[in-house]
Amino acid sequence: MDDQFLKNIHQHIEDNLGNENFSVEDLAKNAGISRSMLHRKLIKLIGKSASDLITETRLAHAKALLEKDVATASEIAYQVGYKSPSYFNKVFKKHYHVSPGIVRKGIEAHSDLKISTPIQKRKPSSPARSAKTNQKIIIYTLLLIMLSLLIYIPKPN
Hints:
Helix content: 55-70%
Shape: elongated
Largest sheet: none
Structural class: mainly alpha
CATH superfamily of the domain at 2-110: Homeodomain-like
CATH class of the domain at 2-110: Mainly Alpha
């Protein structure tokens, strides 16, 4: 029964792939359950929300079209239901860690890139400080030292 439910969900997403207005609400309505029930059921069955499932399906189709070089990245963005090519680029790059343009140019040209499956979310490590942040820390430290010297150095009478 769960397999049939998932098959129905996947089919409905596929049928509405190019519909930029397709939403989780539409998916829940098709399944005959509430949005929150759909969310709980998908999390239980596949560990993903409906929104994530729709996004991953759209991106997988986009990646396949980009690899076949059937259209520009912008055209493909519209074909898979994105209203904005720039937002599509952002989501694609976040998911696959490579831009759609690089995929379209050909994997052979970038053989060092492994993009067949998305990189799983990593646990955040300790945040690295940027050079600008390090520079600010040094400046504030020097200012603090100079201020303390001004305060503690005895003044001549």
